[in-house]
Specification:
Elements (H helix, E strand, L loop, with lengths): L11 H12 L12 H6 L2 H22 L6 H13 L8 H17 L9 H4 L7
Protein name: 4,5-dihydroxyphthalate decarboxylase
Organism: Paraburkholderia gardini
Length: 129
Amino acid sequence: MEADYPDLLPNASELEASYYKRTGVYPMHGTIVVKDSVLAEHPWIAKSLYDAFDQAKKEWLARLDAGEATAASDKKYLELRKIVGHDPLPYGLQANLKTIETLEATAFRQGLTPRRMSINELFVDPLAR
């Protein structure tokens, strides 16, 4: 069953496109969380998770390209491609660095974090393991 997440603003798509044009930032749509203790004991997990999700996304992108992915969410991501390019859900630190840096600075400015934090404190780079 597909969840329905209504936009907060009626012209959200236009606002997102405008913000992306001005800043190069399009919010990430999620993260995968693994406990530090699990990664310490099984350091291969981060890369294995990344590889599994990346392979699934490659297959999904191929279905989008072929016109075979036709769910409402697929149509949303086809529209998003017009704003952000071929891959509407980029994975990895490098692909999301500008967004992560903006998120970190905003979290600090809003008092959600006690101090400025480095990217390496916040995220594990599965491609660097």
